[in-house]
Amino acid sequence: TTTVRVSPGVLGFTAVAHSLADVAMVPEGYSVTVMTRLGDPIAAGVSAYANDGTDDNFAQRIGDHHDALHYFGLAATGNTPDRNSSTRGLMVQNHENITETYLHVNGPSAAPRPLAEALKEIECHGVSIVEYVDNGNRQWTYKQDGALNRRITPNTPMSFHGPAAGSPYLVTKHSSDGTAGRGTINNCANGVTGWNTNLTCEENYAGYFRRDVSDDAKRTAAELASLQRNGITSRSGNYSWSTASSTDDRFTRWNATISGATPADDFRYEPNQYGWVVEIDPYDATSTPRKRTALGRFGHEGAFVRIAEGQKLGAYMGDDSRGEYLYKFVSTETWAAADADATDRLAVGDKYLDAGTLYVARFNADGTGTWLPLVYGSVPARPASGSYPEYTFTSQADICVNTRFAADAVGATPMDRPEWTVGNPVTGEIYLTLTNSNNSNRPVTNTNAANPRSYWGQGNPNGHIVRLREDGDTTSATTFKWDIYMFGADTLDTDTADEQANINISGLDVSNDFSSPDGAYFSRSTNPSGQINPLLWIETDDGAMTDVTNCMLLAGIPGHVGDGGAYTVTNSGNSQNTFVGAKATAANLRRFLVGPVQCEITGIDQTPDGRTLFVGIQHPGEGGSYDAPSSHWPNTQDGSTPAASVRPRSALIAITKNDGGVIGL
Ligand code: FEO
Ligand code: CA
Ligand code: CA
Ligand code: CA
C-alpha cells in the first residue's frame, strides 16, 4: 500500500532540467508508456501503421496532432459511464492539424491534389474516442476493437443548436434550412460537461477555406467584413483541398467562393459552419455531435465548464488570436444534480448549452473586471474602423455568428492570445493562459493592465497567465476581481539587466522557467491532491525558448487572486505601471516534463485516483521532412536509436509513478 499525503504542501518530485533530447523526460521515479500514436488502428481488422506514407483509412485510425484530451471512466464491463473508474475509460482526444510531409510517401503532391491524399489529410483531423484499459497496476493499453471506439472527422454529420441554428447564416448545399452541419476541424482544446459529454473547440478553421479574388466583389459589404474579421481570406485554402476532384463534394466545400453557383451547389456560407463549440456524447458511438451556437463563433480554444450546486452553468472560453478576447457563457437554467447521470446526455446539453447569455470580459486597471453581455438589442453597432464599415446586428443569430464584432462593439479588452481556460475545482477561480503577442499587436504604446508587457520591439514573446475570481463566487456574476498569476520568462536570456528584470517578473529560475503557456489543467478534485489545494499544470507551445529546451509541462501549487506581492512592469523605458500579482518560487512551481524535438505539449488529464497522468505530445519533428525527419519520437522513448528514416508521430503518453503514488506529490 502507498501512503498518500492529503495536502500537497510541497511538490514531491525533482524538477526536470531543460532538454533538447528527442525523448519525453520525466522526473526520477516516474515512467512513460506510449499509448495511441498517429495512425494506430482503432477498429478490428485494420492493419498496423506502416508509417512510411502508404497508410490510408484514417477514419479508423488515430489522427494527427494530438491536442486536448479527457479520460471518461467506464464501468468494468459494458458501455456505461463510471466517473470513479481509474482502470477502464474512454480517451477522447482532439486532432488539431497535420504535419503533411510525413503522411505521404514522398511528401504531398502539388495542386490539383490527388483525391486520396486530400482525403487522408482531412481524415487525420477531428476527434478520436478509444477505449483504454489498465491491465493491472497501471499497465495501460488501448483496445483496438473497443465497442465505443470512434473517429469524428471533418466529414462526420453534425447538427446545429441554439440561436443561430436554422438561420440563413448556416445555409449551405447540405443544409437548406441551416440546421445540419458536416464535420469539425482544427479541434484544439476542450471542455467537459457535468453530464458525461465532451466539448471540442474549433479554433483555426478559417485558413482551410479558399476564397479567390473574384469572390470579394460578389459579397455584400457586411459579408465581406465578417469574412475579413474572422480571417477567412486565403486565396488557396490550407493544403489546397478544394483542388481535389471527386464524384461528391467533400472537397468542393472548402472552396467558399460563390463562383456563379446555383443554390444546389452554394458553399458561400460554409465557413460559418465552423468556429463553434461542439458537444459529443462519447458513450454513444451512433450519436450525432451538436454544434452549440449560443457559445459564440470565433477561434475557440477551449471551453472550461464550471458547475456548482444551486448555480447556473458557466463556460469560460478563450479566442486564440492576438488581440482577441475572453468570453463566458451562462446558462438560463440552474444546475439540477439529477442531470449528472441522465442517459439522454445530449438532451441535457440542449437544456444548459442552448439558452443563456454570452458575455465578453473587460479587465479594468484597478483589478476589477466586468462581463459585458452580448445580447441583441443592447449591443450597439460596431463603429467603422480600419478597413471595416460600420456593422449593425440584425438578430441574436447574427451576434452568435459574428461574435468578434459584437465584442468589439461593447469594448472588451484585447488580450495576448487567450489560450486555455481552467478553473480551480475547490475555489472556482479561473486561470487563462495568454500565450504571447508580437510587437505589431502589442506595441509598448498599446499595453493594458491585463496585458502589461511589451519590450525590445518584440511585444510579449513569453506570455503570462491571468486569473480571476467571480464576485460572490457565482458563475452568473457580472463583475470579478483579477490579477496576474505568473509571467513566462527565459532566465538564460542575455538581454541587458533592466530588460532582464522586466522579462523575469515572477522570479523564475532554471527549474521552472517557461515561455508561451498554452494548455492548463487542475488535478481532479477526486484525487488526494485535489481535496485541499489541487495542483495546477501548465503546458507550453513555445517559439522563444526552443534554443535551450523543448516544450514542457510544469506543476504548481497556485495561490489565490490578490494574494501576491506587488511588482512593477517597465516597458522599454517608456510607460511604467504597477500591477499586483503572485511571484513563483521553485517551491510552488516546478518543471515536470520536457517533450521530444519540435513538439508542443497539449492535452492533459488524470485518472480519478490521480495515479496516471495522460499527456498529449503534438507534432514532434514538425520542422523536418519525409526524407529527413528531424525527430524519430516516439521510437526513441525506450532509449533506442531508430534508423534515420523513421518518421515521428504525435502520440498520447501515460505517466505513472514507479511506487504507484499520486502524480506530482
Ligand atoms: Fe490550437 Fe491556440 O492552440
Ligand atoms: Ca498546435
Ligand atoms: Ca493551444
Ligand atoms: Ca499555442
TrEMBL record:
Which residue ranges run through the membrane?
Answer: none
According to the record, which residues of the full protein are present here? 150 to 814 of 814
Chain residue ranges for the region called Disordered: 621-645
The name this protein carries in UniProt is Phosphatase
- List, as start-end ranges, the regions of compositional bias called Polar residues: 632-643
Source organism (scientific name): Novosphingobium guangzhouense
Q: Which domain of life is it from?
A: Bacteria
